[in-house]
Design goal:
heterodimer; A: alpha+beta; Ubiquitin-like (UB roll); Fumarate Reductase Iron-sulfur Protein, Chain B, domain 2; 2 domains; 5-stranded mixed β-sheet; two-stranded antiparallel ribbon; B: alpha/beta; Flavocytochrome C3, Chain A, domain 1; 5-stranded antiparallel β-sheet
Chain lengths: 262, 644
């Protein structure tokens, strides 16, 4: 045993997408405050495995807050109670001895449950595939310094580009809207000169795919921004809407593409 | 069997150009007749998949994560080198080549490394064109910074998240090809074997990690872009899922494993806090620019610090030993990674380690804060300090950081020739998965460069030559070799599922890690390695007797996945120990205590060990056979590294 915290966990268990799930209560004992939340689950799982029970399944990989694989809806918050971190960066010192912790998967129609706490976020990939890129092939591109990009633009594009695609924004939203996620990519590429030729086409195709996947509309309450581990700003959504409506209302994508030869 | 690295003849600077001209081409209309299998979607895998699909080949891409964007390249912090010489500070392709060869302690091929330096400039252009938001200066030009082991500013970066931005660039190019129907993407799919037909790789066998289905995939070539094997040490800076299984199974099907003992240990990681620890977190090397490394002068003071009776800032100046500054006055805290790591280990062994566990030394910013002010230090390193606070709950603005070395990268990997082909025709290895380019030690900001070089600019040329040679005729999955391999995989899975002992695979992994770290880590001795070999052999026997795996194949089963990976790590561990035993010299990250200079530095033995060790699998529990590829140096003079 590593530490002296004893906790009660109420964990969502669900065999697969076809089966109904339920909460199951577990004890997590001898937990050290220095453990990360996922390491606490590792300890519980080690015990379950030795008893011959199925360990609690959850997604995780880098455990340093950058791959976006971990999720978990902890006590009503995506990635737990602390701001601007992922579940893998959450440590047990953020909880107190004797506490009951409720752990659920992301809840959204567009994120079907894979098993227990893991969900299928392939919808995010499909949205990116619909247009989240600059159409250049390998080779034959200009020198990196041939294009001057003002520092403020590069920095702003970078801020949007730090999205890790974890899905916390969807989980936080009562409409399960994916707009923060989608707008982050639209904003990154929409700000940079490289992204201009396809700017309006991109906004339209990504939004269309987002709608097709069954994500809801923006509630304008900003829960996504508050829960985003990378602090992606709500203003990204405004930029996305601007590009989207410009394209829709004024067929600007066609004019734009004529001008840019896109 | 003799190893032919296929390095082109002729002057160093002309090798790649000439080679590209001599390689056969597949005509544009014929490319769609070829199917290419690519395993892994990190920088090497994603860039290769996108580039080959753009050329017209049909690509099948595989990753074990839920999305190709999660590959561990995403976690690289510092930057990517390129010989652009934008700073007018004397950089050139030749200088990048020279720094890389020297940094690798003269254990890499000149031809490969020169090519790497040559195409480095194209990588930056490509990434900018994709919309990667590199750091810029106010005038709009790309910004650079300097990085360990070089005297010029050639590192391009995107704050502390360069790997993320480069990977998302490659991922976007991959997405475009998925959308175009040229890449078929298989996520949550783990490769478990290579199918070899008449000596050529013709496909793979995978396990669907949702349904458990064991599936066969046929192709004209198989590219392994599956990363490194640092997790053989259990604790490393790698992602939890990073594993050697794809490379190891390929090795057991005939692909030679090159220089398995070459591992890189990074000096500035956040120390272990207890047995529960599942991974280690790196703090960027850049911290050593302003942080001073020290340990208490005596074990008694260290003891008080460990017990919490004394705080670090209460230790008097006279009682501190700034050991790197003392031993290496010229380089001070900026000595290379391997030197800094070994010195920290010596402090701990001397009883002078700090922190509750005693496995740490201090990295102190008090002087920097006094000199520059807290705001300046915050502007430079704020995100790293935040990360440190998050993990340790300590404030590095007030108390020095505690750091300790951790395994970070593996220079060894599958042996490949100049074309990135393993010795099994049709089977290629790219990125950290292969052994090439970094020799015995990798320089900072060079891993990203190599992954993208292999994927964007090397394999699109070299693969065509092989494909043109074999022609478009397909071997499909009805071939008996596929059935047989599938059966072998299923047998292996069932053997794992039958394990119903008393210890989890994770616990075995932890044990293996302890053995590797203790005896095959920062400093290796003949005696220790012999002991490690015995311990690993015993661990392997114990694993197959007493491990416990739960659940069944036909479902999501992390217990089964972990067990398979640990079983492979145990076998790899033994080979690493064999390789380290065989190499009775020190070079780069491989430090044999018996072979050091008077100053305690790694001492090479060029007369006897200037070769690549390529190991051939000879059957279960049989000793592997060593093949040597002699390294020929025509352009650089081999010298002893000296940082004093």
């Amino acid at each position: 045993m590593n530490g002296n915290m004893n906790l009660t966990l109420k964990v969502w268990r669900q065999k697969n997408a076809q089966t109904a799930g339920k909460f199951v209560t577990y004890k997590a004992e001898g937990i050290s405050p220095d453990m990360s939340f996922l390491e606490m689950l590792d300890v519980v799982n080690e015990g379950l495995t030795l008893k011959g029970d199925e360990p609690i399944h959850f997604d995780h990989d880098c455990r340093e807050g950058i791959c976006g694989m971990c999720s978990l809806y902890i006590n009503g918050h995506p990635h737990g109670p602390k701001r601007a971190i992922t579940t893998c960066q959450l440590h047990m010192r953020s909880f107190h001895d004797g506490e009951t912790i409720t752990i659920e998967p992301w809840r959204a129609t567009a994120f079907p449950i894979v098993k227990d706490l893991a969900v299928d976020r392939a919808a995010f990939d499909r949205i990116q595939q619909a247009g989240g890129y600059v159409s250049v092939n390998t080779g034959g591109v200009p020198d990196g310094n041939a294009l001057l990009i003002p520092k403020v633009i590069a920095d702003e594009a970078f801020n949007s580009a730090t999205c890790i695609g974890c899905g916390a924004c969807v989980a936080a939203c009562k409409n399960a809207s994916a707009m923060l996620f989608v707008s982050a990519k639209i904003t990154q590429l929409g700000l940079l000169p490289q992204g201009q030729p396809e700017r309006y086409r991109r906004a339209q195709s990504m939004v269309a795919q987002m709608d097709e996947e069954g994500f809801g509309n923006c509630t304008n309450t900003g829960a996504c921004e508050a829960e985003c581990p990378k602090e992606i700003k709500l203003t990204n959504i405004a930029r996305m809407n601007n590009d989207y409506f410009s394209a829709k209302l004024f067929r600007e994508e066609e004019i734009h593409e004529e001008q840019h030869g896109g | 069997m003799s190893l032919d690295a296929k390095i082109p003849q002729g002057p160093l600077a002309e090798k790649w150009s000439k080679h590209k001209f001599n390689l056969k081409l597949v005509n544009p209309a014929n490319k769609r007749k070829y199917d290419i299998i690519i395993v892994g979607t990190g920088l090497a895998g994603a860039s290769a998949a996108a580039s080959l699909a753009e050329l017209g080949y049909n690509v099948k891409s595989f990753c074990f994560q839920d999305s190709p964007r999660r590959a561990h390249s995403i976690a690289a912090q510092g930057g990517i080198n390129a010989a652009k010489n934008y700073q007018n500070d004397g950089d050139s392709v030749y200088r990048l080549f020279y720094d890389t060869i020297k940094g690798g302690d003269y254990r890499a091929r000149e031809g490969n490394v020169y090519r790497l330096a040559e195409v480095s400039v194209n990588i930056i252009d490509q990434c900018v064109a994709q919309g990667v938001p590199f750091a810029r200066e106010y005038g709009g030009l790309l910004d650079n910074r300097s990085f360990g082991g070089s005297q010029v500013s050639r590192t391009f970066y995107a704050r502390g998240q360069t790997g993320q931005q480069l990977l998302l660039g490659a991922y976007s190019a991959l997405n475009r090809q998925i959308h175009a129907g040229k890449v078929k993407m298989y996520t949550r799919t783990e490769m478990l074997d290579v199918v070899v037909v008449d000596g050529h790789a013709k496909g793979i066998v995978t396990r669907n990690m949702i349904t458990g289905e064991i599936e066969s995939h046929a192709g004209h070539a198989v590219l392994l872009c599956t990363g490194g094997y640092s997790n053989v040490f259990y604790l490393s800076t790698n992602a939890i899922g990073s594993n050697v299984t794809a490379a190891w199974r390929a090795h057991k099907r005939g692909a030679f494993f090159g220089n398995p003992c070459y591992t890189q240990i990074h000096p500035t990681c956040i120390p272990v806090t207890g047995d529960h620890q599942s991974k280690l977190t790196l703090m960027s090397e850049s911290l050593r620019n302003d942080g001073r490394v020290w340990a208490p002068k005596t074990p008694e003071i260290a003891e008080q610090l460990r017990k919490g009776l004394l705080k670090a800032d209460q230790v008097k100046e006279d009682d501190r030993d700034y050991f790197l500054e003392r031993k290496y006055p010229a380089f001070g805290n900026l000595v290379p990674r391997d030197v800094a790591s070994r010195n920290a280990k010596e402090m701990v062994e001397d009883g002078r380690g700090v922190g509750a566990s005693g496995f740490a030394v201090f990295l102190d910013f008090a002087d920097a804060i006094k000199r520059l002010g807290e705001e300046t230090v915050k502007a430079k390193y704020g995100n790293l300090f935040d990360m440190y606070i998050q993990i340790t709950d300590e404030n590095p603005y007030k108390q020095p950081m505690r750091i300790y070395p951790a395994v970070h990268y593996t220079m060894g990997g599958l042996w490949v020739d100049y074309n990135l082909s393993t010795n099994v025709p049709g089977l290629y290895a790219l990125g950290e998965c292969n052994f090439s380019d970094h020799g015995a030690n990798r320089l900072g900001a060079s891993a990203l460069m190599q992954g993208l070089s292999d994927g964007y600019f090397v394999i699109p040329y070299t693969l065509g030559d092989y494909l043109a040679t074999i022609g478009p005729k397909k071997v499909d999955t009805s071939h008996p070799a596929f059935e047989q391999t599938k059966k072998d995989v299923l047998d292996h899975v069932n053997k794992l599922l039958a394990l119903n002992g008393t210890k989890t695979a994770e616990a075995y992994h932890r044990d293996l890690g302890h053995i590797m770290w203790e005896y095959c880590g920062m400093a290796r001795t003949e005696e220790g390695l012999i002991k490690a070999k015995e311990l690993i052999k015993a661990l392997k026997v114990d694993f197959w007797k007493n491990a416990k795996v739960v659940g069944e194949n036909e479902e999501v089963n992390a217990s089964l996945e972990r067990a398979g990976r640990v079983a492979d790590f145990i076998e790899l561990g033994e080979l690493m120990v064999d390789d380290a035993l065989m190499r009775r010299e020190s070079c780069g990250g491989h430090f044999r205590v018996e072979s050091q200079t008077e100053g305690g530095e790694a001492k090479r033995d060029d007369e006897n060990f200037a070769f690549v060790a390529a190991w051939e699998f000879k059957g279960e529990s049989q000793p592997e056979e060593l093949h040597k590829e002699q390294l020929v140096f025509e352009s650089v003079h081999l010298s002893q590294r000296n940082y004093a």
